[in-house]
Design goal:
62 residues, mainly alpha
């Protein structure tokens, strides 16, 4: 299970990130932070467009 920090890093690097909100995005861990938790593609704790693992692997290569 990914943690808050991983989900934030992935969201910040993901070309497919689609925010559930249209307004302000604040610090990590807040309800309005840029995170997979705040992406329209996250359904039942899984990325429905299968980008999470690919983006996370790319971060590990960095």
């Amino acid at each position: 299970m990914p943690n808050i920090e991983q989900m934030s890093h992935v969201a910040n690097s993901c070309d497919g990130y689609d925010s559930v909100g249209t307004g302000f995005q604040s610090s990590i861990g807040t309800p309005f932070s840029k995170s997979c938790e705040n992406c329209n593609h996250l359904k039942n704790n899984k990325c429905e467009v299968n980008l999470y693992d690919k983006v996370l692997a790319g971060l590990d290569q960095g």
